[in-house]
Fold this protein.
Amino acid sequence: MPIKDTRSSILEKGARIIHKKGYNHTGLQEILAAAGVPKGSFYHFFKSKEDFGLNLLDHYAGFFVKKTGDLLNKSDTPPLRRLKSFFDDFSCFFEDNACKLGCPIGNLSQEMGDLNPAFRKKLEEIFQMMVSPVEKLLKAAQERDELSRTIVTREMADFIINSWEGAILRMKVQKNPDALRLFDKMIFDGFLKPTTDISMQPPENKRHLSQSRKVRKEKR
């Protein structure tokens, strides 16, 4: 396996396991077995499990950056609709996975934020990274006169991400999507209710949500 692919494989396999089990409940040997590489390969790329964990946070962040980058580039779609679509996609993912797993960044914040200064610093950097594209979409909505200009976009973006992470946490406890639906209602029908008449839910999202719920009913 090429060197770059080996490193990526370790991160990808480790990311899946840690997303399910948590950082402290995942052993190094379990990650190596999943990636199909010897211990020497791990230490060739990572100095320690902590170093691996910090690189793993960058791996998770890379996924988020790509998804939000695609979102920001869809300039033909109203900004608030793009923002709603972003959260709708994640809601569908959580519902399709029986309201388990949660956000890997939120999970690691709860697990490691109080215990490890290096993790705490990296996690805060990622949260700021998550807030930035939300703020850009809010500003774009104001420029199109679709959102009240009295809203302080940076504060609102922070509030949205904080509320979203809290809703995910509650979802995991309740094992149902009620908290996510309340988030959607309060944010998009309340705080961000458009000042112009735009459809907040594109047809493809309605189909996605409908199909997702149909699949879950069939599984039952």
